[in-house]
Specification:
275 residues; 5-stranded antiparallel beta sheet; 4-stranded antiparallel beta sheet; FAD-binding molybdopterin dehydrogenase
Length: 275
């Protein structure tokens, strides 16, 4: 879609790009959402692609993902053999309501910063205990837990001119056992709920991440695998207003799915079947 109110595109941004920020600006990453709808409040775009923040850098400490890394490149990443939970990269990329053509352009950071309940890069990074590095207009940086970044439907903690620079996933999380559940109303539809569970190898802890069904990510941590009632109680204690309501599912439906799938996951992990 043409953005008829935009009169300028900054093709050679400063670093930090927020140094150029003014009212009516938007950062341009892949643009797959930005150009999909009218944006009458916008006057200028700041293109982040020339900054080259698109690398995938593995190390002994984990994986650094540049915010401009495309979904296609993450999907194709050849992870080390002992990073068993890296299979969630594939799972999460395939959870996009998007064609392969969108994958070629859409970015990991863009999906996170859209901060929609069904953002699969949010699900993946929260479940894998990632941190985000945010760069401010003055060049200073802050590091935040992925679980604390999204605060509501299409809402996050970014301040004006601040940008997501990179995502870091720790190696310890990438070596965990994992399983997931996802429900959609149609085979290739938007997620009604997306749940990922991870567990330390040779341990019985549980990290359960619930997204898409909630307005922000929910991550429930257990030192040991809970019984069915204990798990249900933790989910039941989530506030009513946290459950998302849209044409893909009512809050009651999503709460029901969370309880149902969480118990399936608990039983599966108890059996020792997951990766």
């Amino acid at each position: 879609m043409d953005l008829s109110t935009v009169t300028e595109v900054v093709r050679e941004p400063a670093d930090p790009p927020g140094a150029q920020w003014r009212d009516g600006d938007a950062f341009l990453a892949g643009g797959t959402w930005l150009f999909s709808d009218q944006q009458p409040h916008l006057r200028r775009l700041i293109d982040l692609m020339p900054l080259g923040w698109d690398t995938l850098t593995p190390s002994d400490s984990g994986l650094e993902i540049g915010a401009m890394c495309t979904i296609r490149d993450l999907y194709a990443f050849p992870a080390p053999a002992d990073w068993t939970a890296a299979a969630l990269f594939t799972t999460s990329c395939e959870a996009f309501l998007a064609s392969f053509k969108v994958w070629n352009t859409a970015t990991v950071g863009g999906n996170i910063c859209m901060s929609l309940p069904a953002g699969p890069m949010i699900t993946m990074t929260v479940a894998l205990e990632a941190t985000y590095t945010l760069r401010s207009p003055d060049g200073s940086e802050r590091v935040v837990d992925a679980a604390d970044f999204v605060i509501g439907n299409n809402a996050n903690i970014l301040t004006p001119g601040e940008v997501l620079r990179k995502i870091d996933i720790p190696a310890g999380a990438l070596r965990k056992r994992h399983t997931h559940r996802r429900f959609t109303l149609t085979k290739l539809g938007r997620s009604t709920i997306f749940i990922i569970a991870t567990q330390t190898q040779d341990d019985d802890d549980l990290l359960l991440t619930i997204t898409a069904g909630t307005t922000r990510p929910v991550r429930l941590a257990f030192d040991s695998l809970p019984d069915a009632d204990g798990l249900a109680d933790r989910i039941g204690d989530l506030p009513d207003e946290l459950w998302f309501d849209d044409p893909n599912g009512s809050p009651d439906h999503r709460r029901h799915l969370a309880l149902y799938y969480a118990e399936e996951i608990r039983a599966e992990l108890a059996s020792g079947v997951p990766a």
